[in-house]
Each structure stands twice: as structure tokens, then as C-alpha cells.
Amino acid sequence: MKILTVFGTRPEAIKMAPLVQMIKKDEVLECRVAVTAQHREMLDQVLRLFDIVPDSDLNIMQAGQTLFDITGRALAGLQKVLEVERPDLVLVHGDTTTTFVAALAAYYMQVPVGHVEAGLRTGDKFSPFPEEMNRRLAGALADLHFAPTAGARANLLREGVDPERVFVTGNTVIDALLATVRPGYRFKDQLLDNMDFDKYRFILMTTHRRENLGDPMREIYLALRDVLERHPDVRVLFPVHKNPAVRQVVQEVLGTSSGVHLVEPMDYEPFMNLMARCYLVLTDSGGIQEEAPSLGKPVLVLRNTTERPEAVEAGTVRLVGTSRAAVRAETDRLLNDAAHYRAMAEAVNPYGDGRAAHRIVQAVKYAFKLSGERPQEFAG
């Protein structure tokens, strides 16, 4: 059975890598890999780390590309890939434009689609934009739905998806994380390798969401500056996104702050090992809401909505929005209240146990009658 996995960004590659590796090990499955390279440099970092060589590389990224550009180039390129490969199943991941377009291309070719990390919803089609609609549209086109949690499955069932086509697997991001973080890791960057993680409590910051550009980011960074003034034992490590709109506000607000270390975007492996050494995380990222709790790191989510409510319910993350007062207050609380910090740090991660890729492979074989036993679901 030939399976074509399609992805185009770094987050997709991270989460699909354990699945690619698991499919390649299986005796009855053939794995083919196609990348759109919607993001080029960041994607390549992950391909090298997990030793994945794509069978097809569309290399669509261009400077100043729009969603229209990505959609058009990816759709045309994937038509040719599908015509050559003729797969039995196309696997897509999550909520990127590549995800939606790959599902659409497979549908046009009447090839079944499996959606990894299916069923996440905020209920607001513009938040996050365009990810919320990418995942909903991919879900509408999918034949198999690999939901990371019971909550994600419930979302799909409310939308009328056949329960027999939904498998609760856990999230493959935990598979990747557990294979990457290790004690004694040495950073190649001397700045990071020389950081005194025993003397200072480090906050790891990431921001990149379109809806946070402009004033919301300014509010977040002003709150961070307030926190540093209140806590002399705190430092900030901030891998700054390459988007010029992000960098401009970062420089204006934090460029001269002595307690802030602004660094270039990091490869996945050093970033995960850096997160493991930091005290807490402030982010508007989706994936970090899943990853950081596995490392015992509280997460403050710099957004007004999240498609990952299980983390909020479990107590591993808090949704704080973007106002200066709220971000400052919640960060202060984690730095001042040891019991509150422990409650978040020690809460159980609801997203995975490191066996999600195995469950997905078993679910595929079951769905295509290569195995007679439906895989046991992830319990959370």
C-alpha cells in the first residue's frame, strides 16, 4: 500500500516526521514524501534533523508570497505529484495552507485523505487565520480522521463525521519531542551555551500570529518589559520571527532592554532543549501549547482563543490574551506564587504519550483491511 505524506512548513514536518519514520519501518506500507516548501529554510532544518529526503519537492516559497500564491502554486504542483505517484492514501497534517490544498488535490484525483491532528476547533473562522478554516476544509475532505484527543473527536462527531472513521491517537508532536530532548545537551550557539540557567529564571517568548501583529504585540512586549523591572532574577530568551512586521515592534519595545536576549529563529532540536531549561513560556503558538507541558513548563497563551482547550482544562496552559495588564499580571503570578507554578508545571499533559505515530499506522492498516483489529485509543 502506497502512502503519500504531504507537508510544507516546519511545524508540519516536526509532527509528521515520527509518522514518516513509522511508515517506513512497516513491512506492508510504502512511504512517499512530498513537500511544498511553503516555508523553505525552516522546513529544511527539520528534514535534516529527522533524516527525511523528500521524493518530491515543489519548492514553492517566494519572497512576499500571499495565501493566493501559496494555494495556486501548491495545487498545480501537487496535481503533477499525484499523477506520478498514484498513492492509495494521502496523509496531511493540521491546519496549514499546504494541508488544505493537498486534501483538495487528493479529492480532485479521488484519492482517500487521512487528516493527522484532526478535529481542533476555535469556532471562529478568522481566529487563528487562516488556520481555522484550513483545518475545517481539510476535515470536510478527509476520509480518515486522526484526532489527538477525545475533545477533538467530539468536535468531529458534532459535525457529522462517521465515528468509525475517527481514531483518537494522541499527538505526534510528543513522539518527536521525546526523541529530541536529552540531558546534557550542548548548544552550538555560545550565547545559549553560556547562559546561567541556575542563577536566572528564563522566560521563553515566541510570537508570530497574524492577528497579533501591531498593537497586540506591542502590548505583550510592554508587559514583558514591566515584568523584567519587577523581577531582577528573570531573563528573557526570544527567538524573533523573521516577519519584518514582528521584528519592527520587537526592536522598538525590547531592543534596548538589558534582560532580553533576542536571537534568530532556532532549529527544532536546540529550541526544544532550550525550552526544557527555561522556567516558563509565553507564546501565541499552537504547537508549544502541546510541547511545553511534557517538559513541565507552564504556558501563558498570548491569544484570545485556542483550538486546544484540553490544555486549558488540564491546567497546563492559561489563555491570557494580549493586553499589557493581563500579560503582566499572569506572568507576575507565576513568578511570585510557587504553589500556582507547581500546579501548572505538574499538571498532566493531555496530548500524548509518544505512541501516536504507532496508533496512526495501525489505524490506517485497520481502515484498509490490512489488519483485523482496531487500535486501542489514546486515553489522555
TrEMBL record:
GO terms for molecular function: UDP-N-acetylglucosamine 2-epimerase activity. Transmembrane segments: none annotated. Pfam families: Epimerase_2 (PF02350). Residues 22-364 form the UDP-N-acetylglucosamine 2-epimerase domain. Signal peptide: none annotated. It comes from the Bacteria. It is an enzyme of class 5 (isomerase). Keywords: Isomerase. Its EC number is 5.1.3.14. PANTHER family: UDP-N-ACETYLGLUCOSAMINE 2-EPIMERASE. Belongs to the UDP-N-acetylglucosamine 2-epimerase family. NCBIfam families: wecB (TIGR00236). This is UDP-N-acetylglucosamine 2-epimerase (non-hydrolyzing).
